[in-house]
Every structure is written in C-alpha cells, then in structure tokens.
C-alpha cells in the first residue's frame, strides 16, 4: 500500500504513524524526550534533541513500512503550538524551545488586559492573550534583554525547527502554526503590525507563512540516508497538533466536536471561516482555507489521576506500565463513588489553567472536604473537575452560536469508562471514542493524503475514521453537573486572589519532571 507518514512533534515525544487512503493506522513509533523545568514558571525542551527525534521517528516508521512492503509516498508534519526558539539564518537552534507551559510572561498578559489592547489582539490573531503564546514570550524577552531579541536572526517554533532539520532552506511555517502565535492576522493573512510592535520583532525575523497543504520537495541528503527515503520524497508542511486532532478523529462537520483528553485536554469544533468569540473565551486557528478550528484548551487532563497516584497512593517510584496500572486501580476505586463525589468539588488546576478564562495564577483546590471523604472521592472529584472545565468550554460554544450535538473523543484518558461516562454527563452529550488513540498523527496523514491528491475532500475523513457506539449521558448525573457547574466558576473567581498570594509566597525549589 502507498502510505503517508504523519510526523507529530509534541512536548514530551515525537510520534510517527503511517496510514493509507483507507484511513487506517498501520504503524506507530514514539521517540521521547525530557521536558526541562529548571526554575519555577519555566518549561523548555532541548531544541536539537527535538530536531533529532523527528529524524529518528521518521527512520523507524519508514523501516516498519518497508518491512511490510508499503511504500512511503509523502511525509506530513504536525507540531505542538506556541513554542518559541531562537534560530540562525540556516535554521539551526540557538537556544531551547520555550514551550506553551512556560508561564514567565504572565505579567505582560495582565498588562495588555489592563491597557485595553488584549481584546483587539485576540480578535485579529485568534490567539488568547496568555503567557503560552510566542507574542507574550517575546514581549517578556523584549523587557528583559532587548539586545538579544534584536540580534537573533530568526524566531520560530517547533514547526520551523523540524522543517529545517528535515529539508533546510528558507524558514517557513504553516498557517495553522502561525495562527497560534498571537502574531498573525487570521483574516488579513499577514503578520499583525500591532502584535509585532508589542513583541518587539520584525516580520523579517519570522518565517514565510504557507498554506497547510503546501508541498516542499526534497529531504536533506543526510536525512534521506538516515531514513531510507528517496531524497525527492514530498514533505507536506502540515498544521498544528490541535487542529489535526479534529481531522484525525473525523470531527470536521458542523456540530461535531472533538475532545482530546490526554495529559491535558481540549475541545474544538470546525467552522468554515475565521470566527472569534466576542467574549474572548475561545481560540481560532487555521486548518485549511475553508476549515477553521474554534475551541479551548485546558491544562489538566489525565495528569490529575497520575498526581493522585503519586500523592495518595505511593506511586512516585512507578513508571510505564506499573504507573498506568495504578492509575487504572484508582479510577476503578473512584468509579464506586456516586456522581458528585458526596458534595466534594475539585478545581483541578494542578498545572494552572487556560480556557475559558485564560488567566495565569490559578491553582488547584478541593472545596467542601469532609471527614468522610476518602481517596476514591478525591480522585472522582478531580475527574469531574476536568470534565466540568471542558463543559465550560462547551458553554462558550453555545454562547458564541456554535451548537454541538455530538462529541468524538481521543487520548489516553478515554480508555477509562469513568472518564468517558463523566465527560458525557458533564457535556450532556453522547460521546464516541475514536478507534485509534493517535488522532493527531492520523490527522497529519489525512492532510498529507489530501495535499497529494489521494483524498479529494477533507470532510470525507468523517467516514474514514472509526469510532465507537455513543456513550449516552446519565440523566441524573448530567442534571447534577449542570447545577454544580456555576460553583466551579464561582469558586475559581473567589479563590483567585488567595491562590495568587500563595503562589507568590511559595519558595519551594522547582523539580524537573522525569
């Protein structure tokens, strides 16, 4: 079979999958790396390691395809959004990738809100004014080290880094990744003048923006040799991981939402033209010229159960399958607790929070804790808290005139029946789980097939992607979550100042996660 490789460069691993015109994933390879947290608020990746991982993953998945007799006819790229890396004129990294999780620019986000510029920037760029965005990262660097900001030849992200590693040439990126920088006008189709001024960079320091279906001919000779692929293998520039997840799960029709629920989470819908929520609760990123993805990302997903395993069940020393088994036991224990966790409410903001408020400084809390609550209650309340946060994103869809009647879910967490049933009840919608957990990589394959002419219509992905029968919401649980959801927002608002003060008083040394 002729197959396309979907190469997905993420925050903790680069994954490569192959798929043909039938939309079925045939191979999967993952190459991991370490997220560095050298100080509070910092979250970085070794840029050269990320570039090398792309070549390693491509080599491994290409070898697997050859062993089965498949022919790789193209490679399509997916990249994590919001990263920022300094580069020279030849695309070589001059420092680490500062990832979306880096929070050092929080003060600049608040300043833009205070002076009234945040709303206009969000409306024109589609990206919420939040420290995750390259716009804010550059603004912070401008204040701290303006000489370095000006002297770096090029500023890019994960996509520019990987494109340079695979083929070299002028710095380019796709419209999807550009639309997630906070620097690009999604309607104007150019770098935004005011955003460039806030960031303190010139358009010449940023890459050329191409359509997500652009085909870049040729691989570096050393990459072709390492991967066993012909030098003229087409390289489709692709898109960002979030928008490709919608495509990979077949959620590209109106009223069908995609939920990604792994370590973190997100809920997204596809619309035919740029659409920005007037209340600035949702992002808007490009997929293709007539497919735009509107949604909200939450920082905390399955990570809340892993935290519970470490904090409540002596799981600190466990990794891999042992850690997964402990997570599963805790979820089984939590499943024995009734919906609502006996009056216990969790704000699951262990890693801060993004949508729908886009405010830094939020931290986790349990509200209503009583003596009779046990570990199962704490775990269930954390799961409910994540699903309620996604329901707040869905509420923002409704307020923006974007109805949702079906949800398609993907990610490691949805292997758990408790996660799926809680999500269905919190959203009060049927949830179908994708057959393949690699929605983003498959989405990259499908976009690549489309760009190379093998998939004429992206909307056909809905029929290609396999999903489960719908899990219907439990009416009693849905009613309970509907009545308690306003308490989530009320609690977060009431505790915001307390949490910010506690954060400022905390001088605990940061630890680098394994």
From TrEMBL:
Query: Residues in domain Carbohydrate kinase FGGY N-terminal?
Result: 4-248
Q: Which CDD domains match?
A: ASKHA_NBD_FGGY_GntK
- Gene3D superfamilies with a match to the protein in the record: 3.30.420.40
Residue ranges of every copy of the Carbohydrate kinase FGGY C-terminal domain listed in the record: 257-451
Share an example GO biological-process annotation for this protein.
carbohydrate metabolic process
- The lineage's top-level taxon is Bacteria
Query: Which molecular function terms from Gene Ontology are attached?
Result: kinase activity; phosphotransferase activity, alcohol group as acceptor
Q: Which UniProt keywords apply?
A: Kinase, Transferase
Pfam families from the UniProt entry:
FGGY_C, FGGY_N
Q: Which PANTHER family match?
A: GLUCONOKINASE, SUGAR KINASE
Q: What is this protein called?
A: Gluconate kinase, FGGY family
